Amino acid sequence: MEIFRAVYNLLWGDIIQIPLPGGSTLGLSLLVLILVPAGIYFTIRTRFLPFRMFPEMIKVTLENNKKTDREGISGVQALIVSTACRVGMGNLVGVVAAISAGGAGAVFWMWVIALVGSSTAFIEATLAQLYKEKDPLYGGYRGGPAYYIHHLFIKKGSTRKHSVVAVLFALSGLICWCGISQVIGNSISSSFENAFHVPPIYSTIVLVIIAAVIVLRKNATVKVLDIIVPIMAACYFFITIFIIVKNAGQLPAVFERIFAEAFGFRQVVGGGIGAVIMNGAKRGLFSNEAGSGSAPCAAAAADISHPAKEGLLQALGVFIDTLVICSCSAMIMLLTPQSMTQGLEGMDLLQTAMQYHLGEFGVIFIAVILWLFSFSTFLGILFYARSNVAYLFRDNWISQTLYKVLALVMLFVGGLAAYQFVWDLGDLGVGLMTVFNMIALIPLAPKALASLKDYEENEMKKR
């Protein structure tokens, strides 16, 4: 436990404190120190891809994205899987927590981090495409960080079947996703108990049965996510648009508050500017998952005509997660009178805000949308787990099925009780994944940059 705590604090704790005016400090964790400079570096090396290539991201998403392999998935389907995992409870309660701790200015820094993170997402998704392999069990392709890390450390012609760093990444991912399974079970049962007074045992049993029917079938996961993700994202987006239109007169004041608190004199003098910056930055980093190595597990499965296309799709996924879905949660909260949300936090705060805007329907809506967000995340992480299980244990149905059963057990346990250690284990797993992924991402980045150059010089000029 002491080793666990030491590693956890190293990853998530503030290892550097920078003094700021007003007596506050800017605390920087190891993950922030890794991800933010790497994101800036990739943004520069891609010649500011998030701005320059945004129209191309939209074009690639809207073009005919049919797969060529009968059992594979298309580039847009891979985007849907990764979006299912990015868009989770963190987009609801996590954004609320960031604003509660860091004020409205945290939203601005969340946006900035999304712009930086999309370049990182491009690099890792493109690499996943470049190093993908045929999947003999599920059909189509598989890959992700474990596979491109393997190619970085194991030279061609070597008889070694595993790289130590790739094994550590794969294990970290499986540990992380087990922890997240418990968090998902707890979030869903709690929201249904609050909204509908349904005892956790009943909502959990129904949840696990539905999940088991989907994940234990060979290729049902992507088909279900194809339906759930667009519906849930569209519903949440349009409800937010309705709330914004209804409160249009308050919008100038809300944006003024966001920018004022992001750079405001009062925050500097009051010693709170560090909290504003870091709460926005951390929420942006860990909501969009850029750099953690999760989304490339889906990106590698795409059967697409050019590796850079999937990179562009996954870069767009960061925009969808942070600039659209997270901003929706921020607007719902910031358009609610502060007197009503004073002293509240987490789901209670979000439900109060929705009740203010939409009455009892708002409370029911947020419980249902949380169920969809969380359930789709569970399906998505089990899709991610396929390639990592295969890397560790080779191609066999026993190991694949055993991991799915373990995740279902964790989903059930989480629905009945919350164990802080398991929650922390999930955080530890994603932190370690990020470290191991970034070890390979920077030395392999030139391969992704070469793919981008080839795409711009050949594919785009053909039109």
* Main sheet strand line-up: 1-2
Number of strands: 4
Note the overall shape.
Answer: globular
The proportion of residues forming helix, as a percent range, comes to over 70%
Summarize this structure as a short list of keywords or feature phrases.
single chain; about 475 residues; mainly alpha; two-stranded antiparallel ribbon; 21 helices; globular
Describe this structure in words.
Strands 1-2 form a two-stranded antiparallel sheet. Strands 3-4 form a two-stranded antiparallel ribbon. The chain contains 21 helices and 4 strands. It has helices spanning 2-12, 30-45, 49-52, 54-62, 75-86, 89-102, 105-130, 145-153, 164-196, 200-215, 220-246, 251-263, 265-270, 273-288, 296-299, 307-334, 338-341, 346-358, 360-393, 397-416, 420-459, and strands at residues 14-19, 25-29, 133-134, 141-142. Helices cover 77% and strands 3% of the residues. α6 packs across α16 (307-334) and α7 (105-130) runs parallel beside α14 (273-288). The N and C termini lie far apart (58 Å). The longest helix is centred in the last third of the chain and has 40 residues, at 420-459. The model is unreliable at 265-272 (pLDDT under 50). By secondary structure, the protein is mostly helical. The chain is globular and about 65 Å long.
